[in-house]
## 1
Amino acid sequence: MFNFDLYLPTRLVFGKGRIDELPEITKSYGSKILLTYGGGSIKRSGIYDKIKELYKGAEIFELSGIEPNPRITSIRKGVEIAKKEKVDFILAVGGGSVLDASKNIAAGAFYDGDPWDLVLDASKIGKTLPLFSVLTLSATGSEYDNSGVITNEATHEKMPIFGNLWPVASICDPTYTFSVPANQTAAGAADIMSHTFESYIVNQGNTLTDGICEAMLRTVIKNAPVAIAEPDNYEARAELMMASSFGCCGLLNIGRESSPWVCHGLEHELSAFYDITHGVGLAILTPVWMRYSLNEHTAPRFANYGVNVFGLNPKDDVMSNAKKAIDLTADFFKKIGLPSKLSEVGIDDSHFEEMADHVRKIWFGDFKDAIRPLDREDLLNILKGAL
Amino acid sequence: MFNFDLYLPTRLVFGKGRIDELPEITKSYGSKILLTYGGGSIKRSGIYDKIKELYKGAEIFELSGIEPNPRITSIRKGVEIAKKEKVDFILAVGGGSVLDASKNIAAGAFYDGDPWDLVLDASKIGKTLPLFSVLTLSATGSEYDNSGVITNEATHEKMPIFGNLWPVASICDPTYTFSVPANQTAAGAADIMSHTFESYIVNQGNTLTDGICEAMLRTVIKNAPVAIAEPDNYEARAELMMASSFGCCGLLNIGRESSPWVCHGLEHELSAFYDITHGVGLAILTPVWMRYSLNEHTAPRFANYGVNVFGLNPKDDVMSNAKKAIDLTADFFKKIGLPSKLSEVGIDDSHFEEMADHVRKIWFGDFKDAIRPLDREDLLNILKGAL
């Protein structure tokens, strides 16, 4: 058992119609609001009008157009508004990208320099604006954690930001994901699963969090296909939304060996260069990484996964179960409509060398801590294996 | 999926030696401390001296002798010290009873009347003293929740207190439980399991928290016998301590049908009258309650438990698996040395009528919400069945 801290100060407010409670939840924080969102979906879905109605009388400033891989240029705009208008809090409405951007804005509002500095150096994060969220996509778990991932399009860098960035409260209404299309639902499912794999596929776990990780995986594997087939199936959407919040908050890591989150590290390189959907990149990389990491030493972890998640027979050969578990993972991603090769999303090997260098510089943890230790050559092999 | 709020603001600081970080964690809260504890075990174990050393220069006031079922008389003493000395925060060192009492003291310190009022009426809880804890027993989960259970020995009442009572931070060092004797280790295990059953054995769960509950149960069933056989087995003690924190914090209930926590309600009646160990009462009542609740309608839940926790064959008959699961639960409690009948702990039926009346008045939730709805007669039958 490894030492750990667990700190989850965000209040999750989960269920249909809970947005009505938002003005009560935010009332002690002031009435000058920076509303952040992405494209027009929150207008089509009615959430935008709902918020205007709920906050009648408040001053609402808006930052719209936050990109799926949120860019520092958008964050700079948000910081400018927050500073100029002296907003009291941020209300982020969207998925992980809107939340991630809003976290950087929350910290940037009290920082004199460029908000990208805060990505490069977390120690520069001081006071932050209170952040509230209304979640519209089940994927990154940013609604329940203290981190984000920001893209600097000028330098092709996509990097994590960490700090005192927990939302105060997140409204998680599964009905807001009814309109999420199949491909985004699938990508979100892959993201939740990848968060879980990054915690779960390590040499040393423990009974409790192994079991929690397996429950996370069973939840997504059961419900993503249902949500794709029946977009307004409340139970399926709700199970995915609940799982989303636990993927990245630290609960899955407690007491376990830490891992360098190999697929996340590599995928952020891919989407920094090609702006692909994060979950799509993860679905492509994950089975390749798993196969690359499989050996006599690591097979028991993969076999356990197969037994406890896919119901493989524990009496069967360990290596055979391990291989089956990885195949079933790849099959699942295909079944929910995700691509399995980088070539399918227009990525070739032209930036692999840069990616392998960059990820080793900026990503947290040494890739030698992965379940199969990885050097630069190994990272390149995984990328090439995904072509 | 049922609507829920999840709010877990306590910082868990888990692992060997983490107590050294306590002064840093508490430093912004002041230096007048109310140290609360039970008997002499924290002196024998060296934690008392350690705290004196860590807080050299601070003013430490002490409330010792907090009872296993903490009494309002102790709490009144603590409130008196807190008010008189104007302490800055409370440092609770012990198990659930010390923590529960300290929560009542934390709220009582800013309340003009008798602290028992705060048990009877949570709306009277206002400001509270910051509370920190050092856990020495894996059982109640009070280190990571906002509630406690207080005994009024004058009226034979043992009642829950709820409110803004989360510890700011809890130090969870598994080595502090090495000296916990076998019977208390077993009783703690039964308490953790009962917290889980009270959430898990309901008509409607969900994939994720069903899985988390099953992981909790597997964790305790695997590790309690090891901790009893090898009291200083760090892994086993650590797994129990980690599970303890999640038993009562709300995580196991999210999105599930709520339950009236039948065994906890009845057990608090037993220990209000007879001052028995809470976990012992739970171990006696739980299998009786399970058998009483088993019928054609509820059998699938018990059978699932058997399959996912004890590895029963899912292809076997549902009722047969359900019965086996309950028998295995009773066997497990026996195996770790817990009594299985009230008569073994000196309890007869002389107060059953009062208990059945009282619990229906004070306990949260209507017992008609239990997996098998229970009226007064049913509660009496369960108590009699446990004789």
Note: The interface with chain A takes residues 1-9, 11-16, 18, 174, 206-212, 214-216, 218-219, 222-223, 234-235, 238-239, 242-243, 246, 254-255 of chain B (CB under 8 Å).
## 2
Amino acid sequence: MKEKLSVVKIGGNVIEDEKALDNFLSAFSRLEGLKILVHGGGKLATQLATKLGIESKMIDGRRITDAETVDIITMVYGGLANKKIVAQLQSKNINAIGLSGADGNSIQAHKRPVKQIDYGFVGDIDGVSSELLKNLLSINLTPIFCALSHDGAGQLLNTNADTIASEIAIGMASVFETTLYYCFEKKGVLLDITDENSVVKNIDTSKYKELLSKGVIADGMLPKLHNCFHALDNNVEKVCLGDVSMLDKNTKLFTTLKL
Amino acid sequence: MKEKLSVVKIGGNVIEDEKALDNFLSAFSRLEGLKILVHGGGKLATQLATKLGIESKMIDGRRITDAETVDIITMVYGGLANKKIVAQLQSKNINAIGLSGADGNSIQAHKRPVKQIDYGFVGDIDGVSSELLKNLLSINLTPIFCALSHDGAGQLLNTNADTIASEIAIGMASVFETTLYYCFEKKGVLLDITDENSVVKNIDTSKYKELLSKGVIADGMLPKLHNCFHALDNNVEKVCLGDVSMLDKNTKLFTTLKL
């Protein structure tokens, strides 16, 4: 039987709020078994850019990453957010180790080709070094990923943290029974966006198609759910969507996705 | 017989200069055998602080590290400098992994007690996890340390990179035949500060005392040489001081220190 592994992604709004982050990291530290954390940096990068007088350019909610911006993201995601999370987890007896995709060549990517839009230094993932992660986990380390990959030619690349989480889960699924958790501000997929408790508890492939056709899954949930089913299609055991209480298993109000 | 290990510290002036950094990293990548790199961030932290309107306070050349400043150092040393070095080494076929002292609990420290001066969030090192470093080296990873330690209670601490390098060398000396390299802008310890080629090639304990009494070792070289002999007194095989050409062994003009 395969050993269990949890891959947990936290949303930017948790990173921005000191108390929420501490709560989350406590819940994460209590999670049993092997685990990997993935985080972005939320609005912290935009805030630093603003202070430095650098304009943040967004198209359809995606950041245009020029040379100055990739430096800011490296500072904020790879430095401030990542090292603070690592230091705080150490104080909670988790032997955390912070990684970008360049560290240990853990996430290989290529710069997104320019079509209609030039996204700049944005990475599309080619592969994850599951061998490295297996080795780190085997010596009791807990990898903490920021949202950076690299092109192998010396360039760091801004990379969507949801995608990093699903690609890591996929990369590990051949070795571990892998559960992917997307932790965010909502309790799960909501039937009625105005009712926080209208959580759809279970979604399988046919339910997913039904919710898509009814328009229940829309806007920001579309790429999120796409990532979830992409992971399930590639041997990830299950995907859970919900707020921090989902990790502590002291609520049954979250969404579980299975094929 | 013990396996050989090189611990290399690079000076801030190399980090600040893109071409010099590339030259250095090429020389480092050609260095045979197991190796560990330690770097600070030079003036980059001061530059970012200035841009953000935060005053850099120095006393006797040492930075006073308040809460805002430790965040800046975490961004610049732990983020920008560390991840760029790691990405560039990956392009030179070195499987680099960037670490602060919090990552893998690799460098344990305590906040320097306040006596005449309150240095703020500055760390004095208590120990190095040689077991972790041995494990990382054994899976073909090359650790790249920035100048940050942690207190185990969630706080990152600004820590002198020369001291980190010597403490790592000392921590590894029981397992490896360890050489400590201090790479800086000079060719070594100079007999005459105005003559770049007046390098003292070999310094042992008695020569060290002679140079100290003659005032040849003064100012910034005093703590540097103190670090070197502290390492030698604690089982480090030898210490070399010089510029980048020392690493390539294409010069004999550098200083070697042995007991």
Note: The radius of gyration of chain B is 18 Å.
